[in-house]
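Hi L.,

You mentioned the student needs an example of a multi-chain input paired with its predicted structure. This one should do, with 438 residues in total across all chains.
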Amino acid sequence: MTSQTHTLPPLPYAYDALEPVISKQIMELHHQKHHQTYINNLNAALSAQASATASNDVPTLISLQQKLRFNGGGHINHSLFWKNLTPPGTPANDIAGAPALREAIVSRWGSHEAFVKAFGAELLGLQGSGWGWLVSKGGAKGRLEIVTTKDQDPVNAPDVPVFGVDMWEHAYYLQYLNNKAGYVEGIWKIIHWAEAEKRYTAGVENPLKL
Amino acid sequence: MAALLSNSARVALRSGASATSKAGAAGLTFARGKATLPDLSYDYGALEPSISGKIMEVHHKNHHNTYVTSYNNTLEQLQEAQAKGDIATQIALKPAVNFHGGGHLNHTLFWENLAPKSAGGGEPPSGALSKAIDSTYGSLGEFQSKMNAALAGIQGSGWAWLVKDKQTGQIGIRTYANQDPVVGQFQPLLGIDAWEHAYYLQYQNRKAEYFSAIWDVINWKTVEKRFT
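Structure written out for the whole complex:
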């Protein structure tokens, strides 16, 4: 039973590259502290699981499930999130680079604007910590749905997380305080539509190996 | 419009009567049937250095006030549905009542179980409560470290409470997700807000420091009153 140790994936851009939508300070804390903590706790849970498996300790194995779900989910969600963001004004932020996804969005919600509105309403309706996702149901090129997951619950296979938005307060609070609507409005300026198109058309085989 | 009305009515109410709820939050006030944001009994900066003035101000004026406003909006919809005998809508509104009503209750209780050091914040409990803590946890310090562990273990947003079991009279530590309020079998004695907005501007990801600093501004006199 080998247990692979997970490490913090580097960001595909500089900490200040998402400004003014997300500040450098938020990105540094979010990546270096919050994401790192999920990874540390995931590694600890995996190592405890390996020992419990070796000794066939079923009660311990069961009691570890929630830690795995929370910290593994935290690692997966943040890994997906960093990659589905891009600095504002880059070509990747242009929805024209996501033709198949755009067509599917328009056929599902009537227009890109209607989708943006529906997605925002879903995000702002979250009660507590969680994530908002555009999900392709059942696999690549599936029916699109707006889904929220609580705390660090991930989007489970076979559903495909096309892109996700972190709605934990630590994702925006230092900059937006209680104005989470301002954060939700700004997020569209940094969505990586090219990455979203790739996930929608080809699926996500392993969110930790994007 | 409704917010304006209740606001001015609240000013008028302040000098007069204030309603007391059965949940034990002495500061729950209503004006013309609407919940209103209770005043704090101390200044925003009075809990420093445990909790910064900026945090207290945003937390009270913005976060708590949003729960109050949203609760009142929910209540209006609920009353409309009741008047029409619309059962489906009444049921659909339950999560909103729980979340916004819970947020209002929790924060009201929280402000009251905090106090500046100059007003007795951090002074250990005495009497029956002190005895109950010692006999349940061994010592106040033991209780505090168990409470801090419970707070640190919350996955997501939520609260940790010292509660009294109404059936047995025993005290215990319980955590609640999001704004779920302490109702039913348990009575809230002491609540600590573990939402990130309660500490992030000052402590960022170092939430353990917030949990350890808050004991300096706990109003044990309020907790004793709730216990007895």
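You could point out the following to them. DSSP finds eight helices and three strands in chain A. Chain A touches chain B at residues 29, 33-34, 37, 66, 70, 127-130, 150-152, 168-170, 173-174, 177-178 (CB under 8 Å).

Best wishes,
N.
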